[in-house]
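It is worth pausing here to work through a concrete case rather than discussing structure prediction in the abstract. The textbook approach is simple: state the sequence, then state the predicted structure, then interpret. We follow exactly that order.
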Amino acid sequence: MSLRCPEGGTARATLALAVAAAAALPCGAAERTLRVCAEPDNLPLSSEHEIGYENRIARLLADELGARLVYEWQPQRRGFVRKTIGAGLCDVWIGVPAGFERLLTTRPYYRSRYVFVNRGDAREPLRSFADPRLATLRIGVQLVGDDLAATPPGHALARAGAVESVVGYPVYGEGSAAERITADLVAGKLDAALVWGPQAGWFTDHAAAPLVVTAAVAPPGLALPFEFAIAIGVKKGDADLRRDLDAALERRAGDIDAILDAYHVPRVAAPGGAAAAVSKVRQP
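Step two, the predicted structure:
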C-alpha cells in the first residue's frame, strides 16, 4: 500500500507515522541502557579504550541484560560517587568493595588481596612484615591519602618501623601507581613493593624483567583487612538493578573468571573456603 499525499508530504507523513508508532510502544520495549561510570586511565581495571578487565565485565553484563553499554568517564578522585552516580550521570560502578557504604552493592564476583612484589633475581625477597630489613629496604607502596600509612600495607610498614625507607606512589596521578612501582622495581630504584593484587598481576606480567608476586599477610594485631571482596555498586534504593546484576553475575560467573584469569588477577577464597574460589597468589 502506498501513501498518497501532496508533493513534499510523503516525508512528513512517514515521520509522523514513525513518531506515532514509537509513542504507541509499551515502556518496556524501549532500549535498555547500562550506564557505567569508570576511570579512563586505570589499567588493567579500566580504560577509555575499553581494554581493561572491568570494561570486559561491563560488556559481558550489558550483553547478558540485553542493554546498550554507555560510559561516563571520570577520574577517580574524591567525590567520585557524588559527581557520577549521585549526579545521575551513570547507574553502575564496577569494582567496588562489597558493602561499600556509599552505594548498594551486588554479590562479590571475586576476592583479592595485597601482595609483595620482588625482582625475580632478588637473593632475599621481602615476604613478611617481620623481616628485620624493613627499616632499610626501599619499599614502594600505593599512596591514597596524604601520609604513607593511608593503605593497609602502609599501616603495617609504619607499625614495623619502616617509615624513612618507604616510597609512596600516589594513586591520584598520571597513569597507574602500580605501573610506576613495578617500573621502578625493574629499574632498581626499589628493593621490593606492596601492591594491590589485581594491578600487580597485570603489571608484573608486562614488566621488562621477571618479577615475583607473593601473598602479603597482615601482621598480628593489625585491625585492617588485606583482602577485599569486590562487587558492583549501584545507587542506593535501586534494588531492581542490583537484582538484575546479581542474576547476571551468577549466570556468567565462569566467563567472568576467564576474564580475570586472562588479566592475571590473583584471587583468594572467601572466609569459610568457598569451593569455587581458587587462589592465584603464591603463598609465602
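Step three, interpretation. DSSP finds eight helices and twelve strands in the chain. The chain has two domains: 31-110+228-262, 113-215.
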